[in-house]
Amino acid sequence: MKTLIDRLLLTMRGDMLSCVDVDIVPYIQSTIDSIHTFYDDRGLQVVYEMPQFLILCVDVMLLQSVVSNLVDNAHKYAQADTSIIVQLDKQGLRITNTIDDDMSIDMNLIRQPFYKADLARTDGTSH
Fold first, then answer.
1. How far apart are the C-alpha atoms of 11 and 59, rounded to whole Å?
2. What is the β-pairing status of strands 83-89 and 92-96?
3. Burial grade of 64 (CB within 10 A; 0-12, 13-18, 19 or more)
4. Contact 25/52 with Cβ under 8 angstroms?
5. How many CB atoms lie within 10 A of CB 127?
6. CATH numeric code, 2-114
7. Which residues, including other chains, have CB under 8 Å from residue 102's CB and lie 6 or more apart?
8. DSSP 3-state assignment of 45?
9. Under a CB-based contact definition with an 8 Å cutoff, are residues 29 and 39 in contact?
10. Nearest residue to 51 (alpha-carbon basis) of 87, 84, 96
C-alpha cells in the first residue's frame, strides 16, 4: 500500500521534484536487491555492470520508484533460470532480461503507469 501511495504522490506532484546530488549506485542496488528477494524461487540472477559510484542530481524517491517498476517488470516477465542485467553508466540505466516465450506481452501497454495485465490471461503473477 505504501508503494502505491508513493507512486500516486509522485505522479501528482509533477514538476515539484526534489533534486539533490547523491551517489545513485547504492540506491539502485538496494532497490533492486529488495525486489529480487521476492523472485528467488524462479532461479533469476541479477548481474550488475555499474561503476563504484556515480554522482547525479536526482529526486531519490522518483529514482527508486522508476527502478522498482522496471526491475519488477523485468522479474515478472523473465524466463526462469536466466539473468537480469543492470547496466549503469553516464549515458543511462539499462535493465535487460530474457522474456518467457510462453507469456503474451503487449510491450506498449507494459510501459504505461499502473497497467495491470488481465489475470484471466496470465498465471496470476503478472503486472
1. 13
2. antiparallel
3. buried
4. yes
5. 16
6. 3.30.565.10
7. none
8. strand
9. no
10. 87
Res 103 pLDDT > 70: no
Is pTM beyond 0.85 here? no
Half-sphere exposure of residue 74, counting CA atoms within 13 Å on the CB side? 23
Look over the chain and give the mean of its residue pLDDT values, rounded to a whole number.
79
Inform me whether the pLDDT recorded for 1 exceeds 70: no
Q: Where are the domains of the chain?
A: 2-114
Dump pLDDT digits (tens) for 48-76.
999 999 999 988 888 998 899 888 888 88
C-alpha cell at 78: 523473465
User: Within 13 A of 41's CA, how many CA atoms are on the CB side?
Assistant: 2
H/E segment holding residue 96? strand 92-96
Helix 24-36 crosses helix 60-77 at what angle (to 10 degrees)? 40
For residue 12, the Cα-to-chain-centroid distance in whole angstroms is 20
Residues constituting the chain: 127
Beta strands in 1-127, from DSSP E residues, in sequence order: 20-23, 45-49, 55-58, 83-89, 92-96
Report the helix count and the strand count for the chain, using DSSP H and E. 4, 5
Mean pLDDT across the stretch 35-39?
A: 75
